[in-house]
Write a structure and sequence with these properties.
Blueprint lengths: L6 H22 L6 E5 L5 E6 L2 H4 L6 H13 L8 E6 L3 H10 L3 E6 L24 E4 L3 H16 L3
Parallel strand pairs: 3-4, 4-5
Antiparallel strand pairs: 1-2, 1-3
């Protein structure tokens, strides 16, 4: 059995691995390969979603937004205070705002987003004066897998693949 301090890390790796699987499928479907998973305090899956901007013709159809919407509907509550959100890419400002407004307890993300990351890389919305809610953030979980997935997908697009 693992010491207590390693148990959250192992749980985060397990759920992030599931998100990576979903992101791979999204990429194969032509969407930017990003996925989000909401898990409750009992470590049960509440919702999962992938980017669907292209399919839905909707600029707000980010994986995080869709997973949060599904989770709030399933739990019949606009707040997800006992939930953890796993996402393969650091959330953008829109998604960071939704995460704060949903009052998620924990955010776990894979790869930093050096262009629009609004959690730690470019901006820090959760810890800013704009935020009315504080959450725990774990970045870099399966970071290499998440980053390579995105780099490979965009690389294939650049060479016409």
């Amino acid at each position: 059995m693992l010491p207590n301090e390693y148990q959250p890390y192992q749980r985060h790796r397990r759920w992030m691995a599931y998100a990576v699987e979903l992101a791979v499928a999204a990429g194969e479907a032509g969407e930017v390969p990003v996925a989000a998973v909401v898990v409750d305090g009992q470590d049960s899956l509440v919702s999962a979603a992938t980017n669907r901007q292209k399919r839905d013709r909707d600029p707000t159809a980010h994986a995080e937004i869709l997973a949060i919407r599904q989770a709030t509907q399933k739990q019949q509550n606009r707040y997800l205070t006992d939930c953890t959100l796993y996402v393969t890419l650091e959330p953008c400002p829109m998604c960071a705002g939704a995460i704060v407004h949903a009052r998620l307890q924990v955010l776990v993300y894979g790869a930093d987003d050096p262009k629009t990351g609004a959690i730690r890389t470019v901006a820090n919305l959760p810890d800013s004066a704009l935020s009315n809610h504080r959450l725990s953030v774990w970045g870099g979980i399966l970071e290499s897998d998440c980053r390579h997935l995105l780099q490979d997908w965009f690389g294939r697009r650049r060479v016409g693949g």
